[in-house]
Amino acid sequence: MSRLHHESHRMHRINWLRAAVLGANDGIISTASLILGVAASNASHQSVMVAGLAGLIAGAMSMAAGEYVSVQAQADTEEADLARERIELEEDPAAEHKELTAIYISRGLKPDLASKVAAQLTEHDALAAHAREELGITEFGTARPLQAAWTSAVSFAGGALLPLIVAALAPSLLLQQIVAASSLLGLVMLGCLASRVGGASMLKGGLRVAFWGVAAMAATSLIGWAFGTAV
User: Fold this and answer.
1) What is d(CA 17, CA 22) in angstroms, rounded to the nearest whole number?
2) Is there a contact between 56 and 191 (Cβ–Cβ < 8 Å)?
3) What span, in angstroms and rounded, lies between the C-alpha atoms of 52 and 58?
4) Distance (Å, rounded) from C-alpha 162 to C-alpha 183?
5) Contact call for residues 29 and 180 (beta carbons, < 8 A)
6) Which of 85, 161, 203, 216 has the most crowded CB, counting CB atoms within 10 A?
7) For residue 6, is it left (φ>0), alpha (ψ between -120 and 50) or beta?
8) Contact 154, 23 (CB under 8 A)
């Protein structure tokens, strides 16, 4: 008895994974860096917390707005291309068939077979066939603005909560060291998790995120130390 061969692919995760990783990564790095920069300027613990909380709220809103605008622009472009393709299919189906046939020929099919494949796919769903083969628009790659916006905002807030909670609980004398260490650990874990979900190297993912986190936290700490005034 034959069994169906099931394959597990990760492309369906690309939209939400990208937004979630970007949001959480930015949440940890920006909030931790802000807290360290303010703390390094000899600001009070209350000032550090206010700056961190303000950074969380502003960052989450900024991420949501930025993701929505950029992904909506992509969605608008896709809709415009699909509308144009729909008109071309109605006005000159023969030319569109030749175009689809040429695409399959360029991918290695013989002309006769390419023409038959193009005809069958056109009969099944002409617009979907041209969207996929000519425009590169697929089900997994379709832009979803609201999904990207909410995912980015929530993931940013979730990431930002780590250094904020640590800063609230850490003693003032060790606040900078504890926030830096815990945030770096969180970044490494996030990078490893994202790479694991995406099927990439966990080590490379963790080191990549950690490098940029250390650079950002060091830069803001240096600025706070250089000015040395309470914010």
Assistant:
1) 8
2) no
3) 10
4) 7
5) no
6) 216
7) beta
8) yes
Distance between CA atoms of 86 and 103, rounded to whole angstroms? 18
Packing angle, helices 45-91 and 93-106, rounded to 10: 120
Question: Would the pLDDT of 14 be above 60?
Answer: no
Q: Which DSSP symbol is given to 110? A: -
CB atoms within 10 A of CB 84: 11
Q: pLDDT for 62-121, tens place per residue? A: 988 988 898 888 888 888 888 888 888 888 888 888 888 888 888 888 888 888 888 888
Residue 167: count other Cβ atoms within 10 Å of its Cβ.
27
**Residues ≥6 apart with Cβ < 8 Å to 195:** 201, 202, 204, 205, 206
Mark residue 108 as left, alpha or beta (left: phi above 0; alpha: psi -120 to 50; beta: remaining). left
The pair of three-digit structure tokens given for residue 8, joined into one six-digit string: 């597990």
Tell me the per-residue pLDDT of 154-203, one tens digit each, with 9 for 90 and over. 999 999 999 999 999 999 889 999 999 999 999 888 888 777 766 777 78
Tell me how far apart the terminal alpha carbons of the chain are, to the nearest angstrom: 73
- pTM for the model: 0.70
